[in-house]
Known about the structure:
Elements: E1 5-12, E2 16-25, E3 28-38, E4 41-44, E5 47-50, H1 52-68, E6 72-79, E7 85-88, H2 109-116, H3 120-127, H4 136-145, H5 149-152, E8 156-159, H6 160-169, E9 173-175, H7 176-179, E10 185-186, E11 191-192, H8 194-199, E12 209-211, E13 215-219, H9 222-228, E14 234-237, H10 242-248, E15 257-262, E16 265-272, H11 279-283, E17 287-290, E18 296-303, H12 306-314, H13 322-330, H14 352-362, H15 370-396, E19 403-407, H16 414-424, E20 427-430, H17 435-448, H18 454-463, E21 468-470, H19 475-489
Parallel strand pairs: 1-6, 6-14, 9-12, 15-19, 19-20
Antiparallel strand pairs: 1-2, 2-3, 4-5, 7-8, 10-11, 13-14, 15-16, 16-18, 17-18, 20-21
Amino acid sequence: MEKQNYFFAVDLGATSGRTIVATIENEKIQLEELTRFDNNLIQTGGHFYWDIYALYFEIIKGLKLAAQCQLNICSIGIDTWGVDFVCVGKDGALLRNPLAYRDPHTFGMMEDYFEHVIDKKKVYDITGIQFMNFNSLFQLYAMRKNNDSALANAEKILFVPDALGYMLTGKMVCEYTIASTSQILDPKTKELSPELLESVGLTPAHFGEMTNPATVIGQLTEEVQQMTGLGALPVVAVAGHDTGSAVAAVPARDEHFAYLSSGTWSLMGIEAKDAIINELSYERNFTNEGGIEGTTRFLKNICGMWIYERCRKEWTDAPKSHTELQAEAMRQPAFQCFINPDDKAFANPPSMVDAIQNYCRETGQKVPEGYAEICRCIFESLAMRYRQVFDYLKEMASFPIEVLHIIGGGSLNNYLNQFTSNSLGVKVLAGPQEGTALGNIMLQAKASGEVKDIWEMRRIIANSLELKEFLPQDKQLWDEAYERYLAVCR
């Protein structure tokens, strides 16, 4: 009997990672988690680093386990968070663990760059990327200003998934979706901008060859084969940026959809054929990131479940169970008060509960007391903010948006999903929770020829799970409340 083929996915987030195997059979996909591990920030010498060697060790451990289980692995794909990178020396050695995007060395550097190097509007016109101080462009600028020795001696610069791919194969590439998070890529040419690179003392030769998702990078080196007990397996460049892989897994039937990748952050956007770079997208700070098959992920970052999770850590009297806590919140009166989840007051306050109460007090609203009222305030406010961003998307999209797909961990939150449908006035389809891993696997399947394009990928994913449907309710009440939200949160 023929052995079943497995795809091996490495999915790395900013706090944890895992290795996953999956099979595709009878138009359905099945996932199984092999290993899960912490991804720890290392603080030393006034800086924060990622431990790239520890991550590599965990990948090797997962591959060894797959070999011990005698799984017939046919390829490997790696996705990670965006913007961070590794410097590689002339001899091919990694020069140092990579600095983490949370490192304070970029504080003030974005403003300094706009003042002394290239104007803010010009940077947006070239890249179409929203401004965040930790984008790769400003990290590189900070490193140059600080005479960073790793950058000074770098022959090549590899984004994190590409660096891990290099450690497995010895091949250096620059995968398109991860490069698009850097604020150095020009989505019109689909190449790194020579002008922006020159502004930080680099050239395109400092990076690997631009590579699209679903491309084989190379095979496991003999060293890795000996360590793991596996053969010369291909390593595939998937959508190296985790959100890129997640959006590839949206189980949409056609192009008329928006997506909400819901977790600590909420990423709301559309899949566009071309980058949308104009006065409106600049003013509203929307971003254009690389997608699958030449598409653009036109989206906005919204502060998501971060606010709720921070409050949960403070509440000493709240039920530990999400279900119980949220059920109590639903018993509170509706629309008592609102916050703007993206207000800087909620970025990282000493007390999130105090920050919410102070915001309501300062905006002349009822001050929520206790975990149930505060929870309801958070969920209603998120749904209102989603509507605001959704309305912007409708205005800028070249097609009608008929449905919102919610993916990621937040897709399990039935109360917030219903609120979102009510607020937006459209059908919401929730699932899959495991979007990133599914997209990673499906792009490996595309590279192997098992699926032909993104729509076949999405059809198989839709076949493999039951999506939960939410339809709008109480339209007039939500419309009236939205006007109040806008008055408070403008």
